[in-house]
Amino acid sequence: MLEIKAGNNRIGIYPSLGGAIAYWLRKDLLIFYPVERSPLTRHSDQIIAAYPMLPYSNRIANGKFKFNNSVYQLTPNASNGKDSIHGNAWQRSWDLESFTENSVVLTLNYNPDKGSQKEWPYAYFARLRYCVYESGLFIQMSCKNTDICKQPIGMGFHPYLPRRNLVEIGFSAPSVWNNGPDGLPEGRMLNEDQWNFDQMRILKQDDFLDNCYVNWDREAFIRWKYSNSFLTVSASVIFRHFVVYTPPDQSFFTMEPATNMNNAINMPEISDRGLFILKPGQILKGRIFYSFMGI
């Protein structure tokens, strides 16, 4: 594990575990929440606080999709044993490109072979940069199509956040996809009532959300009232979707900037599904900044 630091911030990173973050500590305060027994199979015996999602975000229903007139069946890697989830970069060991006191750059050169085609059928090259400042954490992600044909690409970032008493969240989005019990989108609706956070409000311990917000304004706010600390999430324009997952009676919740909606690859009729079709050599890249104010 590597550690980068700046001011009061210390961040541990696992290159060999999908480029995941092990912890983000500011003095003794947890900013990202280390989760034991992660639902991700390769992380199940590790403590994970955040990880990148490449080459797609969230679920592919039953791990099956059609593209370029071919049908692909991926090996399920979701906890339900049937879907594929969050790409395959989290299943891979990343290479170290550079490492300084406050930054690290990791790369992943993925080439499917007979043993890994069912993880993802296309070749890609990903680069991930973490850079920590006194004010927060900067993340830069990119994914290049290194195959000989077009391929669908999406990405996102998945932090676990502490669900302490009196945590408030706020962000704006005009519409939202409501997930069904299977974690797949059931329908798109106006962002109203219990799903609306235009005005910051307390996330109650028994609140349950598992929704993908569309065209959010790419800025979200989190306040832990008991410590009077704030986290602002800012993302670049490609991250038009925002997944909010608040499992009841758990010590964490997630707010995930993502390019694509859940199961986007199987929903080509949705014009703003957020999946990018890259030609060979094309690159998709984006940035996320987590700005902290408090202790």
TrEMBL record:
GO terms for biological process: carbohydrate metabolic process. It holds the Pfam family Aldose_epim. It comes from Commensalibacter melissae. One of its GO terms (molecular function) is isomerase activity. InterPro entries: Aldose_1/G6P_1-epimerase, Gal_mutarotase_sf_dom, GH-type_carb-bd. This is Aldose 1-epimerase.
